[in-house]
Amino acid sequence: MEKHNFKKKYGQNFLNNEAVLDNIVELFDVDSDDKIIEVGPGAGALTKRLVHKGCSVTAFEIDESLKKFLDKINSDNLNVIYCDFLKINLNEYFSKKDKLFFVANIPYYITTPIITKFIDDDIIPNLMILMVQKEVGERLSAIPGTSDYAAITVILNYYFDINYEFTVDRKDFYPVPNVDSAIISLRKKENIISVKDISKFKKLVNDAFKQKRKNLRNNLKGYDLDIISKILYEYGFNLNNRAEDLGYEVFVHIVNSL
Ligand code: SAM
Fold this sequence. Notes:
binds S-adenosylmethionine, single chain
């Protein structure tokens, strides 16, 4: 590989284990008119494999000095855009009708902002395959009642079935980071129970988790607690429970009744 000046500020730890790269792309199949989105292609280790899937691949990379590597991937179905993915409007590149596959080995500090971006721009991929810090993987795939379960888990559970796929050892990267990673997959649910107002849903969930150690009565003070209490009762809960005890469907039911 040509010389590259690795930039810590962009979380540049490149995957250099061929078997792990193969295992990532084997997690899904695409049709020719599907679209793959990759964020942070780096020197293109994953990108090279993604273009072999045959559908279009759009890769967003913040560091233009990686162009010398990415230009070597000679493929008609690859489009590399050099920009900060967090600053784009996804609607300018993709439509809600597109069948999207989002694959990324991204720095851990932008994992949540990137996932949130898809949700805020209302472009929901059919599948997201993400390399995340192992602890983030555990939090995103947590189930109700566990301490890793958080507001983001509830919001993601509304759209996706989340799976912890496999752990990736820190030694599989160059430079070697000081944490292990994990591959998680988020598969869009076939039947999403719809909420009437998605922004109200997100606000309710975030408010319920505002102070993790406090119960629902305290965190949801500004809401109609009589209505909430009645719904909680139907699921075997009450206002003394904490947000982390509730599945996403309880929040959906509450917000649709308020
Ligand atoms: N995908 C490559 C691999 O697996 O070897 C590189 C992964 S490296 C952990 C993360 C990549 O994301 C780097 O190439 C970095 O420059 C890029 N990156 C970081 N922040 C970004 C952003 N906001 N938008 C687009 N790319 C970003």
